[in-house]
Amino acid sequence: xxxxxxxxxxxxxxxxxxxxxxxxxxxxxxxxxxxxxxxxxxxxxxxxxxxxxxxxxxxxxxxxxxxxxxxxxxxxxxxxxxxxxxxxxxxxxxxxxxxxxxxxxxxxxxxxxxxxxxxxxxxxxxxxxxxxxxxxxxxxxxxxxxxxxxxxxxxxxxxxxxxxxxxxxxxxxxxxxxxxxxxxxxxxxxxxxxxxxxxxxxxxxxxxxxxxxxxxxxxxxxxxxxxxxxxxxxxxxxxxxxxxxxxxxxxxxxxxxxxxxxxxxxxxxxxxxxxxxxxxxxxxxxxxxxxxxxxxxxxxxxxxxxxxxxxxxxxxxxxxxxxxxxxxxxxxxxxxxxxxxxxxxxxxxxxxxxxxxxxxxxxxxxxxxxxxxxxxxxxxxxxxxxxxxxxxxxxxxxxxxxxxxxxxxxxxxxxxxxxxxxxxxxxxxxxxxxxxxxxxxxxx
Length: 444
Description:
Layout: E1 6-12, H1 16-37, E2 42-44, E3 47-49, E4 53-56, E5 73-76, H2 81-109, H3 113-150, E6 393-395, H4 397-418, E7 425-431, H5 432-443
Antiparallel strand pairs: 1-7, 2-3, 2-6, 3-4, 4-5
Helix pairs in contact: 1-2, 1-4, 2-3, 3-4
């Protein structure tokens, strides 16, 4: 019997902890791809933004912060430096995360101990870099965002509204909006007598686009008959057909926004200020500096031809300003309304209990303390929706996914470091001669 011969077999055993690390890394790649493409990093009141996109919804309080356009829909994200920096860090983190995941997978498949060592070590370095980049982005973005939002303009009580009318507002281009123009097509015939409003040669009763604005009539809101009941709005006691007379209805167009904050009460796509002529001079308030509304552009409040700085009776109520207790006729006595511009000051007493609102724990006297009352002045509008209300926001999917990825990458790095790659390789000795003799004896 000769000396036994021994051969060494290499056995590779897949380590479960490394499989877990690879699975975590794979999940983070998917999460970060989704987080990068979403606009749900910061979700505010009626609008949201991500690293590369921002979206405005109907009903968002105005003015929108960061000088964002008051247009419904999604578009390119803001150009703020910290937003671009966060986006760059996230992209870098995603690239290194993918690279680390790929190398971890190669390490699991390799049977060469030297290659395994290299794959895992480089994967650890890549994942650590990814971790740092994502962590910086997750800290920088919300911190700077909250600072900028705190410095944004106060809400003015208005909202971003849907616009059902997107065609021409001045068909004949004569400078008079169609809503107040008696002859929209400027053909010399009043609209109520004209059977071809857009003068296109097709009678209105068979014309699918009466005003030729590019919007079919069945999709084009009728500003003269909002509810389509055949009764013109100026004769209809219930413009929106909701069963509540307009005189008692605080939402004339039934769009969910109270008229007090709605800039387009009849939802015809034309701002109220361009449809209202307060002083009846034929000039809409939007372009009329002397419209009878006491604003900063109006230098003749009562429209008597005498500038207010020379007029002894600014509001035209027959009481000289020096004896008038309410010079601007805004309902706030001058001893409270010091600026006489219709703006409330800190001495306003909403409930008339002789305690100024600034010192009154219950401004509207409804028995609910202001710190618990959602409508301090009892005007039917939640305080958060009124001008000056605090701006709020929450973190969305993109931000949450980033933090989830940070945690998973950290766990993967710990697992790869603690689970030694040498334990995946085992060596087994086998005596070749003895096994061969046994096979020969068995055959005999």
